[in-house]
Amino acid sequence: xxxxxxxxxxxxxxxxxxxxxxxxxxxFSLLQLLKIKPHEVLIESTGVIGQRIKKEALLSSLxxxxxxxxxxxxxxxxxxxxTTDLVSKSVAIESQVGDANIRIGGIAKGSGMIHPNMATxxxxxxxxxxxxSEVWRKMVKIAVNRSFNQITVDGDTSTNDTVIALASGxxxxxxxxxxxxxEAEQLQAGLDAVMQGLAKSIAWDGEGATCLxxxxxxxxxxxxxxxxxxxxxxxxxxxxxxxxxxxxxWGRIAAAAGxxxxxxxxxxxxxxxxxxxxxxxxxxxxxDRSTLTCILFYLLHS
Length: 302
Prior knowledge:
By secondary structure, this protein is of the alpha/beta class. Helices cover 38% and strands 19% of the residues. It has helices spanning 19-34, 55-67, 74-80, 133-145, 182-204, 223-235, 237-244, 250-258, 289-301, and strands at 4-11, 41-48, 89-97, 100-109, 122-127, 162-167, 271-273, 276-280, 283-284. A hairpin with a 2-residue loop joins strand 3 and strand 4. Keywords: Acyltransferase, Amino-acid biosynthesis, Arginine biosynthesis, Autocatalytic cleavage, Multifunctional enzyme, Transferase.
């Protein structure tokens, strides 16, 4: 069970020599300062591939980092881990889970080389919910698949993608022990909301991005099938170009759904852009092109 996360930004520490030795030395120094066990420290790195962690600089900063630990410095941490990001990314919510009022918060970084699954991004989620470890692991995996594993910016992936989620249990007396309990469903909803908020922030801050496109698929046989269709549409260069050019070309959406690899009955296909129905039961419908162009113009500049 982890109790501390150390993040360095600037050097990816990937494709380098003696990675394990240097990382272990840094984590050993941190655990001595925090007076915790070796397995309770986790490390995340982000930055340029092929550049090693600057060990001496990092080691010399550890005492100051530990002395400045506070419940009010999450915002500073969110800024510190950014690289090419234009803005920092953080989300925090309070929610009722059973009889307990719990809090869930998270920070993330990511802007370029973003494509499923996760890619060049880091995230740390914390909650004071009391939940058994195995149940928590399953919940985190579900939430990641619904959020960070669904975003795409440029179609490129890279190294170092990591999401760490810690649950302290300080909010309750009875742990959530079943993934199918009402309390687990409540906690899952909150966890999904935080991770999806962070994921959308990453996509919105994508390098060169001018708008955020959200694709919703309904009627698929499974959540996995729906995710594949949505990913195909969101990743389509032609769909992106249509949105950027304020062109309501629904044919590009239909084509991207068609080549997703998920079979569906084209005679039941419905396509909406915003609230406007463009295709119903596989048949194109008349629509006000100027209205949709205005909607796309709003998306481009909102």
